[in-house]
Amino acid sequence: MNRARTFVCLGAIGLLVAGTLAQDDLPEWPERELQFERIDDAIVVTGFSEKPGLVLPRYAVSFLLAEADSDDKDQVRRRVDDWLLQAPSAEQLSEEQRNLVRGADVVRSTRVHGKPMRYGDPELGIQIYAVTEEDARVMARAVIELVEGSHRRSFEHYRDILIDGITHLAERRHKLEEFLREHPDPAKKLEEVKKTIWYESIEEAQEDMRVLEKALRGVDVDISGIAAKTASIRNYLDDADIVERPGVENMLSQLLIQQDIEMAGAVARKAALDSHLQRAHAYVRAVEASKKHQKMTRSIRDNERFIELKRDELRNPAEGMRPVDVLGPVTIQPVECADE
User: Fold this and answer.
1) Taking the chain, what is the end-to-end CA distance rounded to the nearest angstrom?
2) If residue 152 lies in a helix (H) or strand (E), which one and from where to where?
3) Tally of CB atoms within 10 A around 278
4) E strands within the chain?
5) From CA 126, how far away is CA 65, in angstroms rounded?
6) Is residue 191 part of a domain?
7) Rounded to whole angstroms, how far apart are CA atoms 74 and 116?
8) Is the pLDDT of residue 1 over 80?
């Protein structure tokens, strides 16, 4: 009955593992959907007409970011072209836009929504120039991806830690399942063993085992000696010349009986010592199994708490692990290029 109940519990553990590993239960980086607002009034920009071979920008997209990471904001201010083209969304840019990014300053700090832009300001006003309206939308998404890149990397790092924790939990539960197949209910087994033999500690049991093993080796020596004497006596009894001597056969028979008695005593001592040794072995095994079971279950509980902690951290991420806020609308308007 206990074994049946144990395997029911193990089946439940398997279901828990499957549920824990469900990908749907893993927090995901929130994907934003930018809301674009079209403005018909054109703005005049400089710095493009003098660039031979470039397709001039015809649109500008503007927005204001809050609390952007300082390193990533500096990347935008320095207008690092290769960095801009590394954004995942940049793959959707037209070839003309890529050339414009490489050949001109297309991302600039600016006033957005009436707010002046100052170095060191936690907010970042951005204006991006693009060849087409679709390029403008893609550039907005690309710059935002890069500005909040460190946030996303931190989020995904924690998510990887969570996935590792879930994997380790599944492995530990599987090992516990295998262990319980071999050692059903270790605590109960230890209590049963303690009814037959008891020690203050596992070290005391191990010391007793060493004494018992030494005593058994001594008994084995005694048994070998008795067996040798018995064999010798039987050889004399089988020798007719010796047995014919007066009183010899009776004496040898008495000696044989004495050796049989000694052998019976030695065998009984060996059985008693061996039984005691086996109980000591059983005690040590039961203690070790109980301790291992406690350690495994404690490890699983710690792993479960760790997973819930990391899951909560991802569900309610800290400032440096969540998307950067876009303040106000993302505006797109026409551009007129003028010579500087």
Assistant:
1) 90
2) helix 149-182
3) 14
4) 36-38, 43-46, 59-66, 107-109, 124-130, 325-338
5) 8
6) yes
7) 17
8) no
Do both 254 and 273 map to the same domain?
Answer: yes
Type of residue at 276? H
**In a domain? residue 170:** no
Question: Has residue 218 been placed in a domain?
Answer: yes
| 3 state DSSP class of 262 | helix
Residues 239 and 191 in one domain: yes
The string over 95-126, giving b where at least 16 C-beta atoms fall within 10 Å of a residue's C-beta and e elsewhere, is ebbbbbbeebebbbbbebeeeebeeeeebbbb
Q: Is the pLDDT of residue 118 over 70?
A: no
- Structural domains in the chain (count): 2
Is residue 232 within 8 Å of 259, Cβ to Cβ?
no
Contact assessment for residue 96 and residue 106, using Cβ atoms and an 8 Å cutoff: no
Q: Specify the pLDDT at position 245.
A: 81
Question: Does a structural domain hold residue 179?
Answer: no
Domain hosting 87: range is 31-148+323-338
| Cα–Cα distance, 197 to 202 (Å, whole number) | 12
* Alpha-carbon span 217 to 211, nearest angstrom: 10
Q: Which of 80-84, 111-115, 168-172, 308-312 has the lowest mean pLDDT?
A: 111-115
Distance of CA 73 to the CA centre of its chain: 34
CA-CA distance, 19 to 13, in Å (whole number)? Answer: 10
Residues 237 and 253 sit within 8 Å (Cβ to Cβ): yes
